[in-house]
Amino acid sequence: MDHTVWTLPVRHFLRKKRDVLAIDLPGHGRNTDKPLSSISKISDYIYRFLDKNSIPEFCIVGHSMGSLIALEMASSQPERVKAISMIGTAFPMQVNDALLESAKNNSQIAIDILTFMGYSYSSRIGGNKVPGMWMTESTKRLMQRSKKGVIYKDLKACSTFSNGLEKAQKVIAEVQLILGSNDFLTPKVKAHDLIENFDNPLVEEITGSGHSLMMEEPNKVLDYLKKLFKNF
Amino acid sequence: MKKPKDLNLETLSLHAGNKPDSDFGSRATPIYQTSSFVFPDSETAAGIFNNEMAGHVYSRITNPTNAVLEERISSLEGGIGAISTASGQAALCLAITTILGKNSHIVASKSLYGGSHNLLEYTLPRFGIETTFVDFRKPKSIKEAIKKNTGLIFGETLGNPGLDVLNIELVSNIAHKKNLPLLVDSTFTTPYLMKPFDHGADLVFHSATKFLSGHGVVIGGLLIDSGRFDWNSNKLFKTLNDPYKGFHNMKFVDEFGPAAFINRARKEGARDFGACMSPHTAFLILQGLETLSLRMERHISNTRKIVEFLSGHEEVKSVSYPELSNHPDYEIAKKILPKGCGAVFTFEIKGGYESGKKFIESLNIFSHLANVGDAKSLVIHPASTTHHRMDYASLKKAGITDKTVRLSVGIEDINDLIEDLEEALKQANR
Q1: Would an 8 Å CB–CB cutoff place B60 in contact with chain A?
Q2: Contact (CB<8Å) B81/A102
Q3: Per-residue pLDDT tens for B210-262?
Q4: pLDDT tens, position by position, B187-196
């Protein structure tokens, strides 16, 4: 929902003297720009940001909607993207109409459903690897901070993202998918077609994790990112 | 759409934060009685120290047994995270020192536990933190007490010992209009009776020594963060908004967003002040929490019967309990404490101080000691004990006289308790 979900891996790669950006997307976190309702518009927005800051080549890590942004960016300007990590991903990333409707006003019920579905059954009871933090309520709080319309537009962008398999075929970057075995929002079987259409992707499955992989298994996610980026 | 069914308090109080031990399958939370944790390699050590990996370093800062307790209380209160501390007082100190320092100011309820009053009135001023005590029943007095350097509003869900019921919604609205957080001591109510975050509080702490552990065998505190307060909205909170030299210039609001407070509290206060809870204590509090709802039901039902008994007794001058229609907070109590107003209350015995003394010394089941929230029934005379450091004016403000007797009603058989009280009342004025 905002850059703070990336704090742990960002700190790691900064310590390793890598240049890292954790971007608040339009309307998210402290970004006061209007939220965008399509993956391609968000991709263009990030490209404008990168161009403005003279960043020609890069790797992208994206979770859930962010994974589709990574795919869009790597397929639209393939020569600029060296590697992508798609965490908690699927194609198509369909969203239930009733959930979309209730998300229109950032309603608490939409937040409750996304949080409930966003964690494995086991993680809903806790056992956070980060000591003393209660995961589900932390996720709710991030969503409650969203500006009006952000959750709806994000969900809409995911559900209307099209030609994902064709786009996967255009990607020349190194591709990694990190999937949770107990992901209820983007079940791992829904990543199957994507896997088939990428050229030799790395597929990492985290047993027992739900959709909130950076919260549920932060150390394993970091290990897989380190593995992907060791050659870049 | 239908709201997903979250687990209820009675289930969370048994399970939240705990998974069967991965090594041996222990169903109970193991006691990790260790000061430190072995790193598998240097890279992991550096990663955990740099806060890029999850893990434990040293039990003063985190410990797996304590972490289960911290998650459990967070789940029960509806918070994002918690820190277990050496005592309730340590939790209060941690809350205050995480956000305030020299030249800052607190607005607090005049009706506080004696130890908290002492900390705010006499000790913290030595460190440049001043407090104005006001009647939280008077919104105007709260507003008037807020100064430019005020950084915190603080009250108790049920004031000790007069049982002033904190109108959390009203007070939090006043606080939030000034971009100030409301800290609430929820020791007397526990999440079973009321969750302060649902009414607008931002931070909650407990003396877990009391009802949460429930058996009078440990000293411990818990500080819980709702994650709702926007610390970025008030630049007065420099510890959360400015770079922290003690952690590579970390800016907590930038790196942790809603969790800025609880992360600073752990990375600075738990680390530097070191008032940590022992893992064995955390284990005992977890055992207590497992039966919280059962105990609280019995505490409340016994209390209601004793309040009724004392209210009609000829040797009793007055009883102060918010479920009685003559209590100043009767209406607000009905609204926010429908399950009960706790198991601690005061009454005045006819005949004055000597009668009170005789009454206390004549009790057999009620133990005369300085604690509340034990499964066993307790009694004390606040003016000469728990609140003895307060001057006459402060005692009066807090609703305490030299005739006030405080009871903490336990879970014994109600007939035995009433018989004990009846007999002691007979002795009191002989």
Answers
A1: no
A2: no
A3: 999 999 999 999 999 999 999 999 999 999 999 999 999 999 999 999 999 99
A4: 999 999 999 9
User: Which residues in B lie closer than 8 A to residue A129 (C-beta atoms)?
Assistant: 54-55
CA atoms of B133 and B123, how far apart (whole Å)? 15
For residues B152 and B33, membership in a common domain is answered with yes
To the nearest whole Å, the CA of B219 is away from the closest chain A CA by 19
pLDDT band at B398 (very low <50, low <70, confident <90, very high): low
- For the segment A37-69, what is each residue's pLDDT rounded down to a tens digit? 999 999 999 999 999 999 999 999 999 999 999
B32 and B155 assigned to the same domain: yes
Cβ contact, residue pair B75, A124, below 8 Å: no
Sheet containing strand B104-109, strands side by side: B81-85, B221-225, B203-207, B182-185, B150-156, B104-109, B129-134
Q: Is the ipTM of this complex over 0.85?
A: yes
- Among B288, B309, B336, identify where a domain stops: B288
Last residue of some domain: B255, B288, B321?
A: B288
Question: In this complex, is the C-beta atom of A227 within 8 Å of any C-beta atom belonging to chain B?
Answer: no
Q: Does A163 touch chain B (CB under 8 A)?
A: no
Q: Show the DSSP H helices in B214-329 as ranges.
A: 238-241, 252-256, 260-264, 279-290, 292-311
A172 interface with B at CB cutoff 8 Å = no
For residues B179 and B45, membership in a common domain is answered with yes
Residue B329 above 70 pLDDT?
yes
Cβ of A79 under 8 Å from any chain B Cβ? no
B50 inside 8 A of chain A by CB? yes
Residues on chain A touching B81 (C-beta within 8 angstroms): 132-134, 138
CATH number of the domain within which B344 lies: 3.90.1150.10
| Nearest chain B residue to A2, by CA | B257
Write the DSSP assignment of B150-182 as a string of letters. Answer: EEEEEEESB-TTT-PBP-HHHHHHHHHHTT--E
